[in-house]
Design goal:
Number of strands: 18
Oligomer: single chain
Shape: globular
């Protein structure tokens, strides 16, 4: 039975954040929840094992969720739902359906379905979004840096890391995502940089993989890395993971270009950062042109009648499915390069003049303003 959400403009709105197990995604919502002027109720949903990798079709549904292992989803329904990612968003859509549309969804990141499915979308510059009024554009993803945890980890690891030859350069490795592949050429790129650090610079390359890093790629690293390199392979036991310690102790960082969250962490700490290029798929150049064209089509160039007509056509093309929102990693990296937060491979690492700052206050203002309008 459906029940309307309570939305009395005189009272504090009821706010839920619906999250699954992707910590990088969740961090964007957590940082906003802590900054909002209202209490936020955390609702964790456990994705069923068969949908951990398989992508379910986006719709208002709970059949991809293990309800026994998830937090209860029951009335009174919230006024606002903060969520991120395909699978939690499906739960948010289901909640909105149960509330007869009164629960409003604020989605962070790239939607896996149509923009119109959500009431407000917080989108950073790596995501090319169509020009609709329910989108709030920010330059960089929102990431919380736990300085105390980083310092604690650096202290715990000091006896191990301090003995290694300097400079200590952390090479942080992500995993394949369109349009990038982790093939032999990508392995060659990573290994070449590690060899340069250990041999020419007489330092230490400390490689850290992620849960997305393919096993075949890890095997390449194991068999071909110089003996004096350090390699940590991600596993479910995070007690002995050097990632945070390296954030606090490394002299510089190299991050594969697929991992925006790791780039942001390093940049927000104000540490030297190099972005490692990856191989692209068979039609990589064509894919790049497609993303560039999408960016130009979606952009607002001026207030002329002609540009307004172009935007109108773009919205029509979006509605009929000719063009869709898409990520443009290279455009995002260009922001980092231009603002001095990162350099390309082959350039000298340098400490930025100041750490990267985000648009958290703008996002909080947008959500509070939306809540008042919706009242």
């Amino acid at each position: 039975m459906m029940s309307s959400a309570r939305h009395d403009p005189v009272t504090t709105p009821v706010v839920w954040m619906v999250l699954a197990d992707k910590q990088g995604d969740n961090a964007q919502v957590d940082i906003v929840a802590q900054a909002l002027p209202w209490p936020v109720i955390r609702k964790y949903v456990q994705v069923r094992q068969e949908f951990a990798i398989k992508k379910p079709a986006v719709r208002a549904a709970l059949d991809h969720i293990d309800l026994e292992q998830s937090d209860a989803l029951k009335t009174p329904w919230p006024n606002l739902i903060l969520t991120v990612g395909r699978r939690p968003a499906m739960v948010a859509l289901w909640i909105k359906q149960q509330s007869s549309g009164n629960s409003k969804i604020i989605l962070f990141g790239k939607p896996s379905s149509r923009v119109s499915d959500y009431d407000l979308i917080i989108s950073s510059s790596e995501i090319l979004m169509p020009p609709f009024s329910n989108i709030v554009n920010i330059q960089y993803p929102l990431m919380r840096i736990d300085s105390d945890a980083i310092q604690h980890a650096a202290t715990e690891w000091n006896s191990r890391l301090s003995q290694l030859p300097k400079p200590l350069i952390a090479i942080m490795i992500g995993g394949p995502t369109k349009p990038y592949v982790y093939d032999l050429a990508t392995a060659d790129t990573v290994i070449k940089q590690a060899q340069d650090i250990n041999n020419r610079q007489q330092g230490t390359a400390y490689l850290v993989t992620s849960r997305r890093t393919p096993k075949t790629f890890i095997q390449q690293l194991r068999s071909r890395l110089p003996e004096n390199c350090q390699l940590h392979i991600w596993n479910t036991n995070q007690n002995d993971n050097p990632y945070k310690a390296l954030l606090g102790s490394a002299d510089g960082f190299m991050v594969t270009e697929d991992s925006i969250s790791m780039m942001i962490e390093v940049a927000k700490l104000g540490k030297p950062l190099t972005i490692l290029p990856l191989s692209t798929r068979l039609f990589g150049k064509l894919d790049r042109y497609r993303r560039q064209l999408t960016g130009k089509l979606f952009s607002r160039q001026n207030d002329s009648l002609l540009d307004s007509f172009r935007i109108c056509l773009v919205r029509i093309f979006y509605h009929i499915g000719v063009i869709r929102q898409v990520r443009d990693y290279r455009a995002f990296q260009q922001h980092l390069f231009q603002q001095g937060h990162a350099v390309r491979v082959g350039q000298t690492m340098k400490t930025p003049e100041k750490p990267l700052t985000d648009n958290l206050s703008d996002v909080v203002t947008a959500i509070v303003s939306y809540s008042k309008q919706d009242s």
